[in-house]
């Protein structure tokens, strides 16, 4: 649009798009501000920022995209994404990292197993996991957490991969469960 002048709610005289002005001078953050030497300190700094990032936005895909991007940026994960339960498969949702598997069957690989068993899977060495699906041969360890709706059904899984062996533990599980709750809340708000 050539013109940012005009009253909020009016149409631009050049391109006829609706003009919206924000009364406050707010900017989207370009990066997460993460301080701390330990992973726990980094999660503690990150979680409130993720919550603030999605506050007031109603689009679930926009919010999930920002949650995933914020996690990868702040925690330096190799790959992170969400798979949604659709029928008898998990279907790829918002993610950050290399190209990923699009569909994963119930009980297949780490993601399908976390869905089937309804529990967090921490895999120190993916090459030792029976039936591991190698979306990327660079991935060495993985954590997958299921997310549930109000009825207790699994509706998505959060999948996080690392380039390092044995990179995930109970600290990651504890804080990523908080992220799963945030994602589940976003899905519920848009159901």
Q: Which features would summarize this protein structure in a list?
A:
disordered N terminus, 6 strands, alpha+beta, 191 residues, globular, 4 helices, six-stranded antiparallel beta sheet
Provide a short characterization of the protein structure:
With 191 residues, the protein is α+β, with helices and mostly antiparallel strands. The protein has 4 helices and 6 strands; from the N terminus they run ααβββαβββα.
Architecture overview:
The chain is α+β, with helices and mostly antiparallel strands. Helices cover 32% and strands 20% of the residues. It has a 6-stranded antiparallel beta sheet, sandwiched between helices. Helix 1 runs antiparallel to helix 2, helix 1 packs parallel to helix 4 and helix 2 runs antiparallel to helix 4. The protein is globular and about 40 Å long.
Mean pLDDT: 85
Compute the number of helices.
4
User: If you compute it from the alpha carbons, what radius of gyration comes out, rounded to the nearest whole angstrom?
Assistant: 19 Å
Return the structural class. Answer: alpha+beta
- Unreliable segments of 5+ consecutive residues: 1-27
Q: Roughly how much helix do the residues carry, as a percent range?
A: 25-40%
Could you give a short account of the major beta sheet? 6 strands, antiparallel
Strand fraction equals 15-25%
Give the end-to-end Cα distance, rounded to a whole number of Å.
34 Å
Shape: globular
Element layout with pairings:
Elements lengths: L38 H16 L5 H16 L3 E8 L2 E8 L6 E3 L3 H9 L3 E3 L17 E8 L5 E9 L7 H20 L2
Antiparallel strand pairs: 1-2, 1-6, 2-3, 4-5, 5-6
């Amino acid at each position: 649009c050539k013109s940012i002048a005009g009253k909020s709610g009016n149409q631009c005289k050049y391109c006829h798009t609706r003009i919206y002005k924000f009364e406050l001078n707010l900017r989207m953050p370009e990066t997460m501000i993460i301080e701390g030497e330990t992973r726990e300190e980094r999660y503690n700094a990150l979680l409130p920022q993720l919550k603030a990032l999605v506050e007031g936005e109603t689009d679930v895909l926009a919010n999930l995209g920002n949650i995933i991007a914020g996690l990868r940026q702040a925690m330096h994960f190799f790959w992170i994404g969400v798979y949604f339960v659709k029928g008898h498969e998990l279907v790829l949702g918002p993610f950050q990292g290399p190209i990923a598997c699009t569909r994963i069957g119930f009980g297949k690989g780490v993601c399908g197993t976390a869905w089937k068993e309804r529990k967090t899977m921490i895999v120190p060495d993916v090459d030792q996991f029976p039936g591991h699906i190698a979306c990327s041969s660079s991935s060495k360890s993985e954590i997958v957490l299921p997310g549930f709706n109000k009825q207790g059904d699994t509706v998505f899984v959060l999948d996080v991969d690392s380039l390092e062996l044995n990179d995930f533990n109970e600290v990651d599980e504890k804080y990523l469960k908080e992220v799963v709750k945030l994602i589940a809340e976003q899905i519920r708000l848009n159901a």
